[in-house]
Amino acid sequence: MLSLISSFIAQAKWALPGKLGTGRCRCPRLLLTLLFIAGCSAPQQDVEIPFEVRFGGTDLSCAGEVDGVALTDLRFYVHDIRLVTADNDERRLRLLGDPLWQNSDVVLLDFESGEGRCTNGTGQINNVVRGRAPPGDYTGLKFRLGVPEHLNHADPLRAEAPLNYSIMHWHWLTGYKFLRAGVASESDGFWIHLGSSRCEPTAGNASGCRAGNRPEVVLSPYVPGKDVVELDLQALVNGIDLEDGTPSNCSSGPAETECDMPFIALGIDFGSGDAVGTPAIFRVGQRE
Amino acid sequence: MTRLRIIVAACALAVIAAAFSGLFTREFEWPLPDGVPLPMVPPDNLMSNEKVALGRHLFYEKRLSLNGATSCATCHVQALAFTDSLARSVGATGELHPRGSMTLVNAAWSGKLTWANHLIDTLEVQALIPMFGEEPIEMGMVGRESAIIEMLREDAYYREAFRTAFAADSDPYSILNTVRALASFVRTIASFDSPYDRFQRGEAQALTDGQVRGMNLFFSERLECFHCHGGFNFTDSSTHADALVQSVGFHNNGLYNIGASGAYPSDNTGLYDLTGERRDMGRFKAPTLRNIAVTAPYMHDGSIETLSGVIEHYERGGRIILDGPHAGDGSRNPYRSEFVRGFQLSAEEKADVIAFLESLTDESVLTNPDYSDPFPD
């Protein structure tokens, strides 16, 4: 049966006129039906979504500082990535496999290069999401921060990339750190570990975590191939004094008042863990 | 003729080899007295002598820490029933842990692990927390798993021991197998041979008269100790292989009541830290009382120094702190367990209860060479 399907696919591909992914498909309806039956969708185009880090309006990386503020860590997962058409239809981005950074469900973005005040990185960074989507005129982008629920509580020691890094594991809450970010001034700093919290083991609920803490990012207009996603860490530390000499942190715990402001910036209701608005830390930027 | 000789010799060799391999791969047997239920063992990590031996080395392995000087045994010292005598333990970077080191004795029968986490129910998962946890840093190996695996591959002992213990794996050198071996070793740390146990088995002389009086007080409704510290392991968070019900006990015992709100210090809120439910404020696991006389100081944060102090705490039905940031009357904590409601003891009765608690010390577990450091100094 499998070989039958693959031979159909081979013939169908062979029969498709012209280059794949260049506008409308002129192939016969029968072939399209066969492709559909075989589990394939229409021709796909490659899509790359670059991410860049800012502090306010200025580039920030481990190697440099902005107004005396240095990056100490920035790693986060994204999933459920969709491109939005002008008609407001959503098309799921099918993620490409990668030995380090992404599988079909989730991508790890990693700006912790091990330079400067970033002290516990792997030395490798990843600043782009790679996938395929049906051809179309896209004007928007949506994605969720974090690891999808069905993977968040699976055994991390059996997980494949990008879920196999202990730095992102959160064994205490039997899940993952969705986002770890930190900035520091000379004598002060702030870091955050975001993940699902308020967990109780209950029958039929894999995690029992009532606070999902998976913000949904909605960016519009966003044009793939032209725009980048900017992550502004100044927005994340909005309301946090980085000069008072008292380092602070938030690890998503219920008693942590230092989580209040960052959770607002992340578009999460701190009490329920629900996504309540697009996170202010993400915005659209121009590819340089 | 020659061929026959060769065949006979080969057969003899085969028999000898089989006998030897039988010796070296003998099945794991639990060294438990009659009547003690077998502990739960995950089906994907069955016990074997090879895993236990490997796990013992890993337990004492300082290269599993960021500073190369900290092993599991740093905070879990055999002579102290696998605790460390500190109120709050210190990690490889010098960071002070919010809580004290828990005894590992009979951890195999503990339904939930650590002081207050109802999500962690296997020693395999628990072992990951000291190794890779960040809040707080304990052994500090987060992000350094490849360095661990490289060390295991290069070390002559581990290279062979992992291959033997996980013979079915094409590549046995993994964090998964590391925690499997560690968990297998920790499961063997069992204590059921205290004077109290011998008394239960019919040795009337094993306990003094005072200890017997103390035992009767301990198990009385007047003191209520046994509701949370009952059963074969002196904790209501016990389970075993044939357990029908998963018993889980977390209790607020009235140590704090900051601002009369029921609050505990923010770095030690107990189960509340995980659930965010007010009713879980200050709820911690009732630890086993086996070997309790050697595991001072007491409570999750080591805030009571002696057994005498612990009994006074329960006598009052909660602790009162008159000033400072933690001021408040714990006996009025709204989330306090209904079994912590105070009692009165004479000086003699108090001494008897302490004498009974001392009868739970099992010298064998504190000295058993099977649990000791396998590395030469």
Task: Annotate the secondary structure layout.
The complex is a heterodimer of chains A (288) and B (377).
Chain A lengths: L1 H14 L13 H9 L7 E11 L2 E2 L5 E2 L2 E17 L4 E3 L1 E2 L10 E5 L17 E6 L4 E8 L3 H4 L16 E2 L4 E2 L2 E6 L4 E6 L2 E3 L9 E3 L4 E4 L7 E6 H4 L11 E3 L9 H6 L16 E5 L2
Parallel strand pairs in A: 1-17, 13-18
Antiparallel strand pairs in A: 1-2, 1-8, 3-4, 4-5, 4-7, 4-9, 4-12, 6-8, 9-16, 10-11, 12-13, 14-15, 17-19
Chain B lengths: L1 H23 L24 H11 L12 H4 L47 H10 L12 H10 L1 H10 L9 H13 L7 H6 L8 H10 L6 H4 L21 E2 L20 H4 L8 E2 L21 H10 L3 E2 L6 E2 L17 H12 L4 H5 L10
Antiparallel strand pairs in B: 1-2, 3-4
Structural summary, described in words:
The complex is a heterodimer of chains A (288) and B (377). Chain A is mainly β and 288 residues long. Chain A is 13% helix and 33% strand. Chain A has 2 domains: 2-37, no CATH class; 45-286, no CATH class. In chain A, the strands form 4 sheets. In chain A, strands 3, 4, 5, 7, 9, 12, 13, 16 and 18 form a 9-stranded mixed sheet that branches. In chain A, strands 1, 2, 6, 8, 17 and 19 form a 6-stranded mixed sheet that branches. Chain A is globular, with a radius of gyration of 21 Å. Chain B is mainly alpha-helical and 377 residues long. Chain B folds into 2 domains: 49-191, Cytochrome c-like domain (Cytochrome Bc1 Complex, Chain D, domain 2, Orthogonal Bundle); 195-363, Cytochrome c-like domain (Cytochrome Bc1 Complex, Chain D, domain 2, Orthogonal Bundle). Chain B contains 14 helices and 4 strands. Chain B has helices at residues 2-24, 49-59, 72-75, 123-132, 145-154, 156-165, 175-187, 195-200, 209-218, 225-228, 272-275, 307-316, 347-358, 363-367, and strands spanning 250-251, 284-285, 320-321, 328-329. In chain B, the strands form 2 sheets. Chain B has a two-stranded antiparallel sheet with strand order 1-2. Chain B has a two-stranded antiparallel sheet with strand order 3-4. The mean pLDDT of chain B is 93. Chain A binds chain B through residues 120-122, 157-158, 165-167, 169, 171-174, 193, 197-201, 208, 210-211, 251, 253-256, and chain B through 117-120, 125, 128-129, 132-135, 141-145, 174-176, 179, 266, 269, 272-277.
